[in-house]
Every structure is written in C-alpha cells, then in structure tokens.
Amino acid sequence: RVFGTQQERNIKKLIPLVNKINGLEKKTSKLSDKVLQRKMDEFRGRVKPLGVEIGQLEKEMLELPEIEKEGAKIDLQEKARQLDELLYDILPEAFAIVREAAKRAIGLRHYDEQLIGGIVLHQGKIAEMANGEGKTLAATLSACLNALSGKGVHVVTVNDYLARRDRDWMAPVYEFLGFSVGVIQNQMNSADRRQSYGCDITYGTNNEFGFDYLRDNMAVSVKEQVQRGFNYTIVDEVDSILIDEARTPLIISGRAEKTTDLYSKIDRIVPRLKRGTEEDRVKRGIQEDKDEDCDYKINEKDHTVALTQRGIDKAEQLLGVKDLYQPDPRWGTVLATHINQAIRAHEFYESDRDYLVKKGENGKEIVIIDEFTGRLMPGRRWSDGLHQAVEAKEGVAIRNENQTMATITLQNYFRMYNKLSGMTGTAITEEDEFKKIYNLEVAVIPTHRPAIREELSDRVYQTEKAKFEAVIKEIKDLYKKERPILVGTRSVERSEHLSKMLREKGIPHTVLNAKYHEREAQIVAQAGHRRAVTIATNMAGRGTDIKLEEGVEELGGLFVIGTERHESRRIDNQLRGRSGRQGAPGTAQFYVSLQDELMRIFGSERIGSIMERLKIPQDQPIEHSLVTKALERAQRQVERRNFDIRKQLLEYDDVMNKQREVIYQERRRILEGKSLKGVVLEMIEDAIEQLISSSVDDKIRPEDWDIKSLSKRINQVFPINLSYYSLEGVHKHEEIKNIIFQKVEEVYAKKEARLTGELMRELERRILLHTLDSEWKDHLYSMDSLKEGIGLRGYGQRDPLIEYKKEAYDMFEDLIGGLKEEVSKLIFRVEIAKEPFLERVLVGDPQMPQPTLGRINQRGGNNNLNQVQMKIPTHKRSESKVGRNNPCPCGSGKKYKYCCGRKQ
C-alpha cells in the first residue's frame, strides 16, 4: 500500500514523540541519581494537587442529589482534561527519566518499540506487543507517569505468581524514583492488602482486585475496606482477562439451604434416559417430539440439552413426581433444571479435560481446568447446580449450593476505571469486541527485531489416529536432529495420550499440564535445550519465556507442533509465538484431523464426502484450500458465538450493574456519613407514605377511607399507639401523613434522648447497614431465579431481555420499599443491650452460613462489633412465617413477596 495500513499510520504519528524522548537521553544520562529523583519530585508537585482536587470532587459528587450531579460531572471532566494535558506535556521528560532509572536500577534500557508501547498504554489503548518484546518493562513508563497524581495505578496480571514476579522485578525502578509499590496475593490479610492498595503502584490479579471490590462493599466499617478508588489500570494479557474470563462473573456467596441428596437421586436416573441429537432429528425428518425415540436431545455447538415429551414423562415416573416444571414441595425447586444440569455434566464435561478429581482437605473434590490456559482453578465452582451435578457424576462429596451475596462481571468491574489500558501478544483478532464493549482501540507495536519464524501450513488428516501417528513421526525426526520441540494439546487427557505414545517409541519427554503445574518453571526452563521434547496444554501459552540453549539457533530454533486448532485464533497464535521470540529462528505447524472437536461440530460435512470421493489414504495429509477455509470459518463461527454470549452476559449484567451502583453508593454514604438521622427520618416518612397509599385512595370519598386498617398497620410498624379516632374527620392525605409523622418524630426524639446522640447515630448506622445487606442478598437470590427462567419467555414470542429489565425494575422498587419499612420497624424495636445478640445477626454466627467466595478463598480479617451490641425483642407467631422468597401458600406458583406478601 502507498500510505500503509491504518495501524502503521497510527504508529507513525507517535514517532516524533519517541524522537523527543531519545533526544533527552544523552542529557538525562549525565544527571546524578539525586537530580533524577528531584526531577520526578518536581513533576509530582505539579501533578498531585490536581489529582487531590479530582479526588475531592469525586467524593463530593457522591453526596449530591441527582439534579446537581450533571453540573458536578462537567466540572470533573474539565479537571480530568487538565490532568491529561499536564501529563502529556511532561511525558517526554518523564519517560526519559524512567528509562534512565531502569538502566541504573535493573540494567535494562527501553527500546524505541517499548517507548511506543508506553505511550499507547498512557493513551488508554491496548498495546499488542509480540511475545518476548518486553511488555513488563514497557508498562513501567505509563505506570510512573500516571502514578504522579497520587490516585494509584493498578497493574493486573493473570495469576499470583506473575503479579509477584513482575512486582519484584520492576520494584527497583519504581523505588529509585520515589514511588511505593505493592502486590496483592491470595492469602493476604486485610491490613496487608490495605497497605498494598495505599501504594502508588499496585500489582495483583483480576480476581483479587474484583473480589476486594465486592468485599469492600460488604464491610461493616470504613476501616475494614482496603481499596481506594479506580484511577488507572494496565491489564497484562488483556485478551485473556477481558475476553476469555469475561464469561465468568465474580461471585461471593454463602451456603444456601438446599439439600444435596437431590443431585445423587437425579444422577442415578440419567443413565436410564436415551440420548438423541438435533442432527438426528433433522436427518430423520422428525417434526414432533412425541414421535421421537429418545428422551433428550443435545446440541454440541451451544452445549444445551432439551428433554423430549417422552423424556419428561419418563423422568417424572422415575422420580415419582407429577410435574418437572413446577416447584416440587419435597425439594423446594424445579426438578427440570436439575435434570438438564445432570445431563450436561454427563454429556459435555469430561474428567482430565474440563476438570480433575483431586484429593483435597476433606476428601476428593472437583477442580476446574481453565479451558484457555490449561491451569487448575482451585476454589472456583460452576454455578446453577452444575458443579454439584459433576460431583454426583464422579461420586465425590457433594457440597451445598451457594447463594449469591455479591457479584460483578469483570467487564463491569474494569469499566469503572477512569482510564483503562492493556497489553498482550494477541489482540488484533478481537479488535471489534474491545471497541464495542470497552471502547478500547488496539495498536500493533512493531517488533524490535524482524520476526523470522517459519509458519508452515496445516497438515490435515481424516482421522485422529492418523494425525497422532504423524505427530509422533515428526517428533522422532526432529529429535534425531536435536531440535527442541514444544507440542501443544488442548486437554490433560490428550497430553497424557501423546505421552504414552512417545514412551512406547522410547522418546524421552516432559509433560506440562494441570496435573504437574507445580513443576512449570522447571519444565519451561529446560524446553529450549537440545533434544528437549515438551508436551504442554495451553499452560505454556502465557507468562512463560522459553530461552534457547547455546547452539540451538543454528539447528533452526524451537519447533512448535499444535495437535489441534483451538476455538480461538488467539490461542493458536499464542502457541505459535512460543517460537521465534526476539528475532530468533523457529518453526510452527498445526496437525489437524476432521475428527477434532472444532471440525466435527462446526466444520462442513462436505469436506468428509469430498475426501472419500478423492480416495485419499487415511495416513496421507490433505492440503486443500477448502479445508483451510473450513478451519478458518469454524473458528470465526465459534468466536462470533462466544462474543454473542459475552455480549448477552453484559446486557443482563448492565441491569444488575445499575442497581448495584445505587446500592453500593447508598452503602458508602452510610459508612462514611457522620450523621444518618436525616436519612432514617426520610425513610420513615417514605414508609408512612407507602402505608397511607395502601389504605387511603384519593379517588374515593374520604368517608369511605379504611382508617381502622391504616391505624392498625401504622401501629404494627411504629410504636406510637395511634388511635384511629385521632384520624377521623381528617380528609386530606397530606394532613394524615403530617399527624402520623409528628407522632413518630416525638417517639424518635425520646429514644435519642434516652440513648444519647452518639449511641443513636451508631444504632442508625448498624440498622441501615444490616437491613440494606439483608434486602440486597434476598434481591440477588430473586434476580438469580429470574435470570434462570427468563429464557422461557422467548417461547411466548416475548423478548427475554426486555422482560428481564421490566421485572428487575419492579423487584428493585420492591427492595427499596421493603428497605424503608424494615428500617422504620427496627429503629424503634432495637435496644442497646449487653447480650451480643444482634452482633451475630449483623456479622454472622459461627453456626450460620458464612460468606464464601464463588471463585477464590475469602481473605482473612474479622468483623468485630464489640463497641455497640444490640438486642431485638422477639414475639411469638401463631403460625409459621412464610419466607419472602418462598412459594406463596395460596398456590399461585409465584414467590410470596410478589403475591400475597405484596398485598400485605
């Protein structure tokens, strides 16, 4: 092209800035350490006051009423623009100083390409830098520049080991320039976390940052919170975190009160159900379910299961129930959902591919294998009963289902940052998704040395057996030539199969998969040696650097063999990228069969018939443009499907996100507010308004108002002994409200005088927090239930997302109403007492279910409430209480709070 690609033109625009930085290098290199440090202090003195001002504006905005927030937002945007301009002005000199500091502190100098990467990161974009091009060092440039504001910089990596390694490696550079640097690790306690977050630059994993955010919004005091805001983040391996991980929400959960016996019972009936597929139905031309000779159909593309009418009848008979699709009184749940999950566990989830059965502290347990990295994910559990279904299938102890207490997707977590940037070796294939979801542009950074890796065309075989035999033959030939070989597989099971074949041929090798992950560093260190044969799952794709032994370059470098195409082109590119790093020679080639999962599910069936007609022997590789195009088409198809899944997840989570923002903002106001009396009185006034509206209708004559019922309900909530005679003759809605509110205020004032203002303020805070958390937890449970069944609305020709938004809005309105009424009740009923009764209610009794993490272990720390202990008086009920989320006793099938509970 005459003018080059768009990417090349974008990079060309940055060259003058790079030249400016280079022009300062000679002058900067002559400065003493102290002068360099003083220069950085001068920059800090110019930038930090503006950062403090922005932080103050952000804090003030939380307290403002909605009507005033727009004006404050404009002021905030103007200050942010001024900060950006200031940072851009000092960028050349600041980058030159950081480069010099790196030379002196760790003996590394930033190349021009790393300077470009640093500029791109500062611009809030994604820098695609090839493997081995020094992303970790490039990140120090924009990290230092953005840390000058004092608002904190988060550098996010994929695992604890890389977070600690990168922090330890780069800390001398930061500390040389006067920046503090911390790291967040899985087992850290709250005090250490708070200290790390207080540093100018903090390293950690996406999980740790996300879970700390959720835990901070479950804390019962400001002192227990550890994070300090979302200023600027650099996400390493950004495609892995923002795309591959985006389908899995972060969840903190507590134990739900569901029995585990149900999973074993359902697992026992699955082998008695006969399988069919969507494809079978199409082939036979069957139009109606009742004619089918199977009990359920599976769709391998979408990993979905559907019971046929025959299957429904059979399952009902085997379980002894009347209707699978109605809540069963014995189990308190819809059995059809559990049957679907049990079938999915048997059909789509395989041991040594999707999970391992490992020995844990309490016996055998299921540990998930990350499909993209091949690493084990201890502590993570599949949701919606799927994990329990897999446990039942494998015959290990079944753990209780968890109830969500706090949740957020990584997509919405990272969108909270004022500025988001990222770096990876493979981003350009997902450019559209980064732009649409995160508003992130991708810049492809040129390599420092020209890449000379040889990428051979795919060798395609008809059968898997022929493919693996060809792989073994290739390894044998390369082994004789003493070249190091890295063989990539998609699963533990495949890597073990290949290992067995190599043992039979007498070829020494090492295996790197989830079973042997402890030896990862040792195995990778040896992988570039002569005659080294390393079989690896996707684990070898990220955060590893295979260094070539002396003399290996002359042999042609590392030879990478892929034994199967991954769903994502990015994962294939990462495997290729293990060879030919930093301009070294290398070779990469994929061996594929028409029986591979990707080709079997998404590939064209025409290919198989063409190969049969051509009468090509099974052990002969096929090289045909049709096959290559089919592979590319299959990968794009899967990528589109996965993008749609992530997009849909975000659309649903955006509904929750708006609600979460309201609740967490209110929670922050409760924690940080000095006096909450006004908040409580406002809630009381709103609760009175709600009660009056349910009994007093302005559309009918005042003489027909149900004043008796109103006074009775008011007295149930407020201890004011309101006589309905006092409201007789009052014919205005507002007057009734004023009479009641005045009486409530009098009782409130008496209680405050008795307790003293200080204790009353603490009481208000505790009750508001306890009630808000309790209502929010119930709401999350209801939202989970709503999301679980909302897809069925599509059968009624209604858009499930629109229906979800409508019902979610109604449920949130109910939450707010319930919150106000509950606070109004408790504020008068709770008394200060020596017995630590309410302490257990607020914090969690050892006998009660405790919050546990959906994905990783909960951090240490305690929630002491020893200063104020409260007691709630109890009263006996004549009948058992119906839970708000339980089925309504009237038999409508709705939840109690949306049926008779709402009427009451």
UniProtKB/TrEMBL annotation:
The chain positions of domain Helicase C-terminal read: 474-630
Its cofactor is: Zn(2+)
Kindly state one GO CC term assigned in the UniProt record. Answer: cytosol
**Key word Cell cycle present:** no
Annotated SecA family profile domain residues: 1-623
Q: Which domain of life is it from?
A: Bacteria
Example GO BP: protein import
Q: Which InterPro entries does the UniProt entry name for this protein? A: Helicase_ATP-bd (IPR014001), Helicase_C-like (IPR001650), P-loop_NTPase (IPR027417), Rhodanese-like_dom (IPR001763), SEC_C_motif (IPR004027), SecA (IPR000185), SecA_CS (IPR020937), SecA_DEAD (IPR011115)
Q: Looking at the Swiss-Prot or TrEMBL record, what is one Pfam family this protein matches?
A: SecA_SW
Q: Which residues form the Helicase ATP-binding domain?
A: 116-274
| SUPFAM superfamilies xrefs | Helical scaffold and wing domains of SecA, P-loop containing nucleoside triphosphate hydrolases, Pre-protein crosslinking domain of SecA
Domain Rhodanese, first and last residues per copy: 467-525
Localization, per the record, is:
Membrane
Q: Which UniProt keywords apply?
A: ATP-binding, Cell membrane, Cytoplasm, Membrane, Metal-binding, Nucleotide-binding, Protein transport, Translocase, Translocation, Transport, Zinc
Hey, which family's this protein in?
A: Belongs to the SecA family.
Annotated protein name in UniProt: Protein translocase subunit SecA
The species this protein belongs to is: Aerophobetes bacterium
Question: What is this organism's lineage?
Answer: Bacteria, Candidatus Aerophobota
Q: Which gene encodes it?
A: secA
